[in-house]
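sry for the spam today, last one i promise. C-alpha cells for design, 144 residues
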C-alpha cells in the first residue's frame, strides 16, 4: 500500500462537497422551474436528486472531518442559463452528473492503493453517478 496524500485527499473531498451542495441548489431550482404535462414525475425526480446530493455532501463531510479536515462553507460555482424547458434542464443535469463523475474518479485515483475504505467509497459513488448519467440519457431520448 502507498501513503495517502492527506492534503490532496482533503482538498478533493472539499471540492466534492462544494459540488454536491451546488447540486442541492441546482436540483431544487430545477424542481421549481419544470412545467408541462410531465411536471409531477419530473419534479419528484429533481427533488430526489436534491436530497441525494445533500446526503452525498453529508457523507463526504463526515469523511472530511474524520480526516481532520475542515468542511468548506462554499458551494461550487453555478451558472443560471435561464433555459427552463425540460430538455434544457435535463441536458444541464447530465452535464452536472458528468462533472460529478469526473470528480469522484479523480478522488478514486488519489486514494487508490492508499485506503481501502476511501477506495470503496469512491467506487460506490462512481457507480451511483454512472447510474444517474444513464437515467438522464434515457430521459433525454424522447427529445432527440
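last one done:
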Amino acid at each position: 500500500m502507498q501513503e495517502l496524500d492527506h492534503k490532496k485527499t482533503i482538498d478533493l473531498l472539499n471540492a466534492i462537497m462544494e459540488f454536491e451542495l451546488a447540486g442541492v441548489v441546482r436540483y431544487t431550482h430545477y424542481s421549481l422551474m419544470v412545467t408541462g404535462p410531465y411536471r409531477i414525475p419530473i419534479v419528484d425526480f429533481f427533488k430526489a436528486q436534491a436530497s441525494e446530493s445533500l446526503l452525498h455532501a453529508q457523507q463526504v463531510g463526515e469523511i472530511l472531518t474524520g480526516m481532520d479536515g475542515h468542511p468548506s462553507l462554499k458551494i461550487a460555482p453555478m451558472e443560471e442559463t435561464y433555459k427552463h424547458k425540460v430538455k434544457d434542464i435535463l441536458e444541464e443535469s447530465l452535464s452536472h452528473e458528468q462533472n460529478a463523475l469526473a470528480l469522484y474518479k479523480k478522488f478514486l485515483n488519489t486514494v487508490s492503493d492508499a485506503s481501502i475504505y476511501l477506495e470503496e467509497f469512491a467506487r460506490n459513488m462512481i457507480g451511483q453517478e454512472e447510474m444517474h448519467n444513464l437515467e438522464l440519457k434515457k430521459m433525454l431520448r424522447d427529445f432527440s
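The longest helix spans residues 6-33. ok im logging off now
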